[in-house]
Amino acid sequence: ILSIPLETGKPLEVAGYRVTGFPLHHTVPSTGWLVDDGKTAVYFAGDPDEEGCLAPVAAAAGGRLRAVFLAASFPDEDAAFAKRTGHLTPVGHGRAAKGGPAAAPVGVTHVKPGFADRIGAQVRAGGNPSIRIVRCGEALEF
Question: Which of 21, 97, 99, 119 could disulfide-pair with 54, CB 3.0 to 4.6 Å?
Answer without folding.
Answer: 99
